[in-house]
Design brief:
heterodimer, A: alpha+beta, 10% strand, B: 489 residues, mainly alpha, 0% strand, disordered N terminus, disordered C terminus
Chain lengths: 236, 489
């Protein structure tokens, strides 16, 4: 260990191997490698997908994704459904497309589900529910705004931060705006009561658009499964 | 036994040839300014990071406190981590590294103004980055949330500072090299490669979204095992033999530890994405490497243990060694936690829980920060020519940090396993997250208390360090030791 050159050669050799295998290889092999796959219209029984269009059916809203990043949502929300057998993600109620009382298992999320996203926000921690398929389970738009504006209005025990700064207030003139998430009555300088209405900013609307676009549970086309050498049941 | 106590001063004032003493003094004088500058600005960032962490932690159980956009959890949490990692950890590591390398190589860096200039630039970049995160410009990529514009600046200033490790190593006299020197050389090599690769891949190569996320996970554990761990081990391998006044137990164990880490450190990270949309080989390889890492970890710990055996009294009284030994215990827990989180059966349970933050805090606070405190308590008196003012300050700082850091990481790991068990229990398939949240609440309140303790400790440390840098320390040839001074005071 006296020769600087030999130390560096050793470091080079030991680090280059994982560097190539873990980072360079996957990055290059996926680069430009993913493309949408059309569904086969043939019936499922006949070996098709029984539906038209292409997979993935929903692409994440790209402008809204910037808001999602900026507000640090990844700190508490993941966007990946782990494979069956790793935790109970695929069995959790509401985490797939089916929002019924007793849904069947959903499938794990796959690389195609993040097509054309700049970065897959797979998540840092899961202090809140997974959002990979949140688009299926969000109700009407106003209730989503309510959750962002006042998270504890839905569950008293929630510890989600409020995103009040994505809402602006405007004086109510005549009718209360339909999209108002909060109404506050204050006394003006002239002694007259008037009302402030809190309405979503454009940023809040974009964030909600993004959340609605997160739908990653559509079936994987048979053609893609065959290409990957998997049967339909696997990963479903 | 007690005679050895003097060894903290011995190598400065006595016990060695006069020319040796002069040479050391020349080295200390040569690196004084840049090293003190790195320590002070690092300690300032440590206070800021503790404050931000306290706020972030508070939000978990009191979400409506300080309800303003730039302090919302999603921003203040990454701001705190980035301030801690880039503001404190990297700066203080560079400072300690410059000094240890200069001392061991007996060579003074020539262009000191380059080091100082780079430090200024680094601080500006980190300031811009942290404000960027709080202001809503973050990338949402773990441990690299700062706006993408800062990374080339940071890389350049890091390389300018860390290249002195190589320059000084080359300028050394022929003879045996020290384990600490290998680790420092390795850090100067690993960090730029890791940092450059990840930033280029994530910001500038239009790859796929999911492999980018995998690369990000590789970066996080890479920072732990290829920056924090080697830098911390450079300190422990230096301080323990130095203060005890005896050689490191085994050169061979040192070699195993070093090359074992080199061979395994670059594979880890992707186990965090087990079961996710990444190529399945990545989590598998990462988990395997993390479990194998026990081998070099055991070699390192064994080597330290054999060196320190029978020297309990000295360790209890030397401020530097108390911190160092705490850091070594944390290193053992860190390695063990990494293994647990990398196994398939426990890993999936703790995946995406607080346990991962516990692992990060174990590395960043309980291990690395404590080792660096030890180094600073050793180095600064040699740079300033005066001794630490008060053993009480040091003692309080030790206990506040030890309790704070130790419990913080352990609480997070324990709460992660407790919550993960509930979340992944098949019986809870249709339950909301209320129960895990309530179970975690106690741990999270504990986390806030621990950060509050550390904030007080770090303020004390910053003040003490600032007084030393102003040369307001004690004028004495006796080092400030714990124990007798505490009783006498």
């Amino acid at each position: 260990m006296n020769d600087l050159r030999r130390i560096f050669l050793g470091l080079l050799a030991t680090f280059a191997l994982p560097w190539l295998i873990i980072v360079v290889g996957p990055t290059l092999s996926y680069q430009g490698g993913l493309a949408p796959v059309p569904y086969n219209r043939m019936a499922v029984e006949a070996g098709g997908d029984g539906r038209g269009g292409q997979y993935p059916a929903s692409i994440a809203h790209s402008t809204g994704a910037l808001l999602y990043a900026k507000e640090g949502c990844v700190q508490c929300h993941s966007q990946m459904v782990r494979a069956g057998g790793v935790g109970i993600d695929t069995w959790r109620q509401g985490w797939g497309a089916d929002q019924g009382e007793r849904p069947g298992p959903t499938r794990q999320t796959r690389p195609h589900d993040y097509l054309w996203e700049n970065y897959a926000y797979l998540g840092i921690a899961r202090h809140g529910p997974d959002l990979a398929n949140v688009g299926y389970r969000l109700g009407e738009r106003q209730s989503v705004h309510m959750r962002l504006y006042s998270p504890r209005s839905l569950h008293r025990w929630s510890n989600m931060p409020s995103y009040k700064h994505l809402y602006r207030r405007q004086a109510v003139q005549g009718e209360v705006p339909a999209n108002a998430v909060d109404i506050v009555t204050v006394r003006g300088d002239d002694g007259e009561d008037f009302q402030w209405a809190y309405v979503p900013t454009e940023e809040a609307e974009l964030l909600v658009d993004y959340l609605y676009s997160l739908k990653r549970a559509e079936p994987v086309p048979v053609a893609l499964m065959e290409q990957l050498g998997e049967s339909r049941t696997q990963g479903d | 036994m007690i005679e050895k106590m003097a060894s903290e001063t011995q190598h400065r004032v006595g016990g060695s040839a006069p020319e040796d003493v002069l040479e050391r003094a020349a080295v200390d004088a040569g690196v004084r300014r840049p090293v003190l500058f790195l320590f002070l600005s690092g300690a300032g960032w440590l206070v800021i990071a503790s404050l931000l962490s306290l706020i972030a932690s508070l939000k978990f159980h009191a979400p409506d406190v300080m309800d303003v956009s730039w302090l919302s959890y999603g921003r203040v949490q990454p701001a705190a981590t980035n301030a801690l990692l880039y503001g404190w950890a990297i700066q203080v590591g560079l400072g300690v590294g410059i000094w240890i390398m200069a001392r061991l190589s007996r060579s003074v860096p020539k262009a000191v103004w380059v080091l100082e200039g780079s430090t200024v630039v680094w601080n500006l970049a980190v300031t811009f980055g942290v404000i960027g995160i709080l202001g809503g410009g973050q990338t949402a990529m773990e441990w690299m949330e700062m706006p993408a514009a800062v990374w080339p600046v940071m890389l350049l200033s890091f390389v300018l500072v860390a290249s002195t490790f190589v320059v000084q190593f080359r300028a050394r006299r022929q003879g045996p090299t020290f384990v600490s020197q290998w680790y420092l050389l390795a850090v100067a090599f690993w960090f730029p490669w890791l940092f450059l690769t990840t930033n280029v891949v994530l910001h500038h190569v239009p790859g796929s979204a999911v492999t980018d996320a995998a690369t990000n996970s590789w970066y996080v554990l890479g920072m732990v095992y290829l920056f924090l761990v080697p830098m911390g081990l450079a300190v422990t391998h230096y301080l323990l033999p130095k203060v005890l006044g005896k050689p490191l137990h085994s050169y061979q164990l040192g070699l195993i530890g070093f090359w074992g880490l080199a061979a395994l450190g670059g594979w880890m990270g992707a186990q965090k994405l087990t079961g996710g949309p990444v190529p399945t080989g990545l989590p598998a390889l990462a988990g395997m490497a993390s479990i194998l890492l026990l081998i070099p970890a055991i070699a390192v710990l064994l080597n330290h243990w054999r060196t320190a055996r029978g020297c309990g009294a000295i360790i209890g009284r030397s401020p530097s060694l108390r911190f160092t030994v705490f850091a070594l215990f944390s290193f053992a827990v860190l390695a063990l936690t990494t293994v647990l989180l990398s196994t398939f059966w426990l890993g999936q349970r703790a995946q995406f829980t607080q346990a991962w933050e516990g692992l990060q805090m174990m590395a960043l606070v309980s291990f690395y920060t404590m080792a660096m405190f030890g180094a600073i308590y050793f180095i600064v008196p040699r740079l300033t020519g005066c001794e630490w003012l008060s053993a009480r300050f040091i003692g309080s700082h030790f206990w506040l940090s030890a309790w704070g850091a130790g419990f913080l990481s352990m609480l997070l790991i324990a709460s992660g396993f407790a919550q993960g068990g509930l979340i992944n229990d098949p019986a809870n398939w249709n339950q909301p997250l209320e129960e895990p949240l309530m179970v975690g609440r106690g741990y999270l309140i504990g986390r806030t208390l621990m950060w509050a303790m550390m904030l007080i400790g770090n303020l004390l440390f910053f003040g003490h360090l600032a007084l030393m840098a102003l040369r307001l320390g004690r004028r004495s040839s006796e080092p400030t030791l714990l124990g007798h001074a505490e009783h006498a005071a």
